[in-house]
Structures are given as C-alpha cells and as structure tokens.
Amino acid sequence: MTDTRRRHLDRFDVFAPHAAGVTVRIDGQDFAMIPATELEDHHPRGLDPKPLYSTGERGLQGWWTLPDSAAGQVPETTVRYGYVLSKTKDPGTKKEQKITSEVLPDPRSPRQPQGVHDLSCTFDAHEFQWSDGQWNGKPLEGAILYELHVGTFTPEGTFEAAIEHLDELVELGVDTIELLPVNGFNGHYNWGYDGVAWYTVQEEYGGPLGYQRFVDACHARGLAVVQDVVYNHLGPSGNYLPQFLEIFTAGNSSWGEQINLDAWGSDGVRDLILDNVRMWVEDYHVDGFRVDAVHALKDERARHILQEMSQVAHQTAARLGRSSYLIAESDMNDPRMIEPVADNGLGMDAQWLDDWHHAAHWALTGEEQGYYEDFAGLSSLAKSYRAGYYHDGSFSSFRGRSHGHPVDADTHKPWQFVSYIMNHDQVGNRAAGDRFSQYLSTDQQVLSAAVLLTQPFTPMLFMGEEWGASTPWPFFTSHPEPELAEAVRKGRIGEFARMGWQESEIADPQDPATFDSAVLQRSERDDDADHARVHTAYGELIALRRSTPELTEQDFRSIRAVADEASRTLVLYRGELGRVAEGEPREGLNGVAVVFNFSDAEAKVPAEISTQAQTLWSSGDVQLSAGELGGAVVNLPAYGAAVLRV
Asked: Which segments show compositional bias classed as Basic and acidic residues (predicted)?
C-alpha cells in the first residue's frame, strides 16, 4: 500500500490500551480496527517515530488502526466519525467482564462541528496554503504581549473578525498575541478553561481553518502567536477521555480530578499532551505557549512533564526552521521553573510574575483583601522590581507559611518574567469582573500604563486595557446542563465570599448578559476623550520603551527602586543609575529615572538625578528643582508619572 493511502487510514488511529476491540463508525458505516502492532513500521496518526515524540519511544502498544483492506471503502473527503469500544469494565483489574461503549468522539479530534458531545470530523491540517514561509519566529525578549480572548475581542467573536483589528495592535506597538484557550468546550461561549477536547479548535471561533488563517495573518504583520494551553485539568462536561485511557489519578486539584502524569497508565496521558504540543507548533505554526497553572501538574517521575514539553516544543520548532518558547503560569516562586533542562531545571523559558502584579495592584488601588494583604506598602513593589519574586523565602500571611526562593541575578534575566497590571484572571476573578476603568480615574489609568510599560519585565496588556475599556470581563459560562450551571453559580458565590465580596456583587456566569457585557466596544476608544487619552498614553509609552535601551536592559543589577511610604511615591532607576550601590557617588552617571506619584495630591519627589535631566515622557506638568541635599526634586501632579534621562 502506498504511503498516501496508508496515511488516509492512519488519521483514524486511536489509543485505547484496554479495549478488547475497537470499531470506528465513519459516515454511518462500521469498520473493525486492528491493533497497530499487527502492521510493520506503523506510526500512529503518521507521527514521526524519532525520539522527539514520546509515542515513538513507547511503541505501538495500545494503538488501534484500520487494516489495509479498508483503504478502498473509507471516504477520502471530510467525514464524521466516532468509536465504539469493547473493553474490560475495570482496566485496573484482571476481570474479563466486557462492556460496549456508546459511539464516542475522537480523543484527538481535530473538529467537533456539532459540539463536544457529538461525532468528530476529519480535518487535514496540511492542506492550508501558508504564506509565512519567511517567518522564523520572534523572541520573547523585548516583546510586548497582548492577551486576547477570541469570543469577546469583537462582537462576532471569530478569528476572521479578529484579523480585521490586527493592524490596530501593530500600530499600537504590540508584537505578540497571547490567545486564551481555544480548544473545544461545551456550550457556545466560555473563558476557555473548561476545555475537554485538547486537539479541537472551538467551532464558534472559526474552527481549525479559522485558526490557521488567523496565525498566518498575524505572521504577515510581524505578530507572533502564543497559545494558552491547559493540561492541568479538564472541563466538567464532554470529557470522554476516561473511556479511552487513564486520564485521571487519585486526588484532586483546585479545578477537579487530578490529571494522571505519573501513576499507572500515565504513559498514554503524557503522549496525549506531548503530541498536542507538537500539533500546535507543526500544524498551526504557533510561536510559543502559555502553560496554565503548572503548579497543579502533579508529576513525581524522574523526568517532569514540563521538561518533556520543553523538548518537544523547542525541537519541533527547530526542525521547521522556527523558534518557540514556553511561559509558565506558576505561583511556586521557584527559579528552577525557568532554568534549562540541561541544568536540571524544568525548561520553561519564562513565567508569569503574580508577585509584581499584586504589588502594583496595591500601589494603584490600595486594595488589601485576599492575597493582596501580603503586598500592602510600596516597599513590596520596590522589592519585586529589583528581585522579581517578592516572596523569595519570606513569610506569606495569605499562605500561612514562608514561600519562594531568590532569583539568581547571574542566571536569570528580567525578560523571563511576564508581568501585567490586568489579565483575564486578575479581572475575571473579581466579583463583577471590573477593570481599572470602572474604579480608577483617567489619571490613575495613565499612571498604571506608565507602571506597566517602564517595568523591567516583559509587559503584557489585557485586551481593551490600552484604551481603558469600560466593558467588564467577568467569568462567564454557557453550560447547557441545568445542574452544572447551578453548581457553577454556587461555586463562584463561595469562592468570592472568601475574598470578602457579597453575593449581590457577583455576576451570574450563566446569564447571557454577563457574556455580552464583556464584548469590547471600540467606538468608545475614538469617541470619548478620556479613552483616547489612555490610548495615546499606551502608544507613547510602548514607543518610548522600544527607543530607550535602559528600560529593557536585561540585568537585575541595573534595577533599583526607592519607595517613600509617607508620600506614596517611588523612583525606579535603570541603567548606570540602577547599578550604583547605596553610598556610592552618583555624579556623572547615565541612566533613566522613572518617578511615580501614587497619591491623590501633588508630590515633590527627591531623585538622584541632575536638575538638567531630560523629560522623555510625562503624564502631566513636571518641574525639576534643586534638592537641599543634592540631586533634584521632581514636582509631579496627583497620580503623575515621568520618565527622565540623565
């Protein structure tokens, strides 16, 4: 049989290690499958057998495929299909009692056009004519990220509609899109973190073809695409993976049953994850990954799943002549997360930095409930500027224990930490999903833009933040099962009660109006002077960041921050000014000083700079005068900020 005809059959390969028999139903016709071990040199789903792929390492055991005799009978065009499994009732025992399943969707389904509970649909990812042949990827260092939820980015909620606004982001200065999860979930709209079909692109967004078009359009404009992936849990509806393999193990995470990465049967689960990483790089040309809640990945094997993901992502991209990187969402404050696998690190290239966010949030809002209680005081922001982790072994009152480990200034770089003043979690996990624009003044929003875009870490904007969007972004779901919908409502009420919010403040996640309220309204950006002012500030500060080397210098030793709690002011020194130690002379040093006034009154801020310093950017009228003990005094308006060059 030719390779082409064999590959046509291979697309129905399925991993079901405990099945006594497997039947695939294709367009209503049943075909009996055979163990893949009965074919010589077979590679499941056409996967390369090189050691890069875990499937190739572990062999064909547990895989089922169609016999060669089915080649002339299986349709070659798009078809709908599903599986009927004859299997042992309990694969963890020796019992031979058999049961036969209902028709199940494909665990690696590329399309679910009728939803996650229905049959799967074939999709040939290699048919798309890419135009990004000259695209080699874009490094995370120096990037400006933009977190985007496809369903609420436009009223249409599709990739096609999102493409129409990419030029606006390029003009703003964004160079990397971080997409919230797009894999298949039950219902018509969702944050994406209730996904159950890891290989599927949600049909409402445009499906897999729409995704390819979006990535191609991004690359044509010089925009990289980072895909948010969720391997630490599965959604509550439409998960048929337990019918095929041991996807769960004993215990629970914060979001439900624990994904099985290290117990009996975990090889197949790891293959499912690693081949999915390969798919995004190879079939959809993504440039990187944001890996959700890696602290929930329980893995005690000698080689951690994150290390294997790092290898697969990097090597797949390199084989295709491109680059790739992985960003971990981690609250462990463990620098091993971003150390290379070769050095026994976990191999992530970067991680989200919640500590800096929490400290900045306190400085901008004064909120102290929940985990913000650890970050009260500008000294916490000053420490995070210069150390990355605020909790680097210090006591965390929110956790009731000491937490974290210091970052090594010789090993780690500021760009390896992605930080933000808003993101889907920090907005959506508020009771009403309210953004800064709903409780901060325009002056405070411009100040927050300056805080974000002059920090030493990799900045990320949350969609709409750039013009102070007035639309909230609350948690929303569309579970069709009434009992599940009610459980989600009650769960949110209980969760927010622990944070001090009242039930009356909580948006109903199942109410369609909650979802509708989150859709961006771009008309306000151009029609309202306050929104336009915020948008202008973001554009100016991004341009300033790109043209001012000191703002992106990648050395923790070039960062120094001095806070004054009484006046609620902070000065961030970068370049030579950042490297000078306490008591050393400052005369003749070059660098940049960023001066912030977090108070509602005009402030006179002492700074270790010359009165002749050049104002590169300011949010209002700024005046410099001589200080009594040398240096300059920077006069800032309420909620003012200035970037000054010496």
From this structure: 89-99
Exposed (0-12), middle (13-18) or buried (19+): which is 491, by Cβ within 10 Å? exposed
Q: Which of 329, 374, 466, 550 is catalytic?
A: 329
Catalytic residue among 194, 282, 292, 334: 292
Query: Would residue 329 show up in a list of annotated catalytic residues for this protein?
Result: yes
Which pLDDT value is given to residue 51?
A: 42
- Residues 523 and 584 reside in one and the same domain: no
Strand order from edge to edge, sheet including 34-35 = 14-15, 63-65, 34-35
How far apart are alpha carbons 515 and 189 in whole angstroms?
8
Q: Which of 508, 543, 578 is the last residue of a domain?
A: 543
The residue among 54, 86, 104 that closes a domain is: 104
Closest CA to 271 of 282, 260, 281: 260
Binding residues: 290-295, 354-358, 424-429
Q: Classify residue 126 by burial, with Cβ atoms within 10 Å: 0-12, 13-18, 19+.
A: exposed
Same-domain check for residues 512 and 572: no
Task: Identify whether residues 379 and 298 lie together within a single domain.
Answer: yes
Q: Domain range holding 22?
A: 3-104
- pLDDT (average), residues 585-605: 91
Is 81 strand, coil or helix? Answer: strand
Give the β-pairing of 569-574 and 559-564.
Answer: antiparallel
* 613 and 580 together in one domain: yes
Question: pLDDT confidence of 89, banded at 50, 70, 90?
Answer: low
Q: Which residues does the annotation place in the binding site for substrate?
A: 290-295, 354-358, 424-429
Q: Which burial class, exposed, middle or buried, applies to 251 when counting CB atoms under 10 A from its CB (0-12, 13-18, 19+)?
A: exposed
- Asked, for residue 45, whether it belongs to a domain, the answer is yes
Neighbour tally for 539: CB within 10 Å: 16
Average pLDDT, the chain: 92
Q: Are 306 and 350 in contact (CB under 8 A)?
A: no
Helix axes 354-365, 442-453, angle to 10 degrees: 150
Convert the pLDDT of each residue in 452-472 to its tens digit.
999 999 999 999 999 999 999
Same domain, 481 and 624: no
Q: Does residue 198 fall inside a structural domain? A: yes
Q: What is the pTM of this model?
A: 0.95
Kindly report, residue by residue over 197-242, the tens digit of the pLDDT.
999 999 999 999 999 999 999 999 999 999 999 999 999 999 999 9
Mean pLDDT over 80-95 rounds to 77
Residue 162 lies in a domain: yes
497 inside domain: yes
Q: Tokens for 203, please give them.
A: 């049909």
